[in-house]
Predict the structure.
Amino acid sequence: MPEKVELEVPLMLAPVPVVLVASAHEEFGQNVLTIAWCGVDCSDPPTIHVSIRPSRHSHRMIKESEVFTVNFPTSDLLRAVDFCGTVSGSLGDKFGPAGLTPVAAKEVKAPLIAECPVNIECIVRDIIPLGLHDMFLGEIVASHADKAVVKEGWVDFSKIPLISFVNGEYWSIGEKIGDFGCVVEKT
Amino acid sequence: MPEKVELEVPLMLAPVPVVLVASAHEEFGQNVLTIAWCGVDCSDPPTIHVSIRPSRHSHRMIKESEVFTVNFPTSDLLRAVDFCGTVSGSLGDKFGPAGLTPVAAKEVKAPLIAECPVNIECIVRDIIPLGLHDMFLGEIVASHADKAVVKEGWVDFSKIPLISFVNGEYWSIGEKIGDFGCVVEKT
């Protein structure tokens, strides 16, 4: 067995997707926040979450509007990603300075981000306070992708260099290495 | 703006980490299950989740034992990953057939998996029923990594070819492309 060492700081999983979370609010307008604390929670109803600190401007906007969108930035948007994760929307519009374009979604009032090749619309089903972060559980009510990256009705992830995050580092995603069920099919 | 198309099936995020979830139960012994529905939920207390269908053998084991471990397989373990995600532990031991070795954890009764270079110990803080899946919220109480992949007290992810999952496909992770705060530091 390989020698194991205990880490002093808790390890927050492995590289996880980096997403741009967009929101809209009657009083505050539109906002965008970079989030890595997200994940899949349930297949049916299709549910994902984003975790946000109560002190963040987006927290109040999403809590009160009860909708958000999840948009997947590509590596050419790394500057925008870092900007939207470190500067508060309470200081003013972030879309313009980040070079991002909000466009109307189909089912929710929060905008999609045009420059992101994949966009998911969510309705907040629950907000679970956990400590430093509150978890916003969102049911997916619509998913979109750039026509150029859709193949046979599905997203061809080999065409979009997405970004992941671990321990303060941004990472690229790699290549397809297999299909679910490949062992069972073979044996 | 690029032309967008709506997807007929909800998009469950982008490639997300694939983990081996290990459990232990007084009556049923030890078990291991492959999970991709996981994510980071809160930084403090450090909280991650795994979502499991109530019909899975691991569901009852973790619900009753209130602990689990999250272990990160590398691409050379793809056969074990696929096997442990498609075959039920109720049919018998999966560790042996999968070529995986359970070893004692530090804080919880669920085992670590020796072949996985990174291991996280969790205590169940809540179970949230969402529909097809129940979300097990786990507080991280200890993290371990193979000594060979630890650099300055932290995991060097460039040394471990982890696996992610999207839409029935296994993917590799890529390369580091930047640091959090790189924009703010420069501007």
Q: What stands out?
A: Chain A has one domain: 16-186.
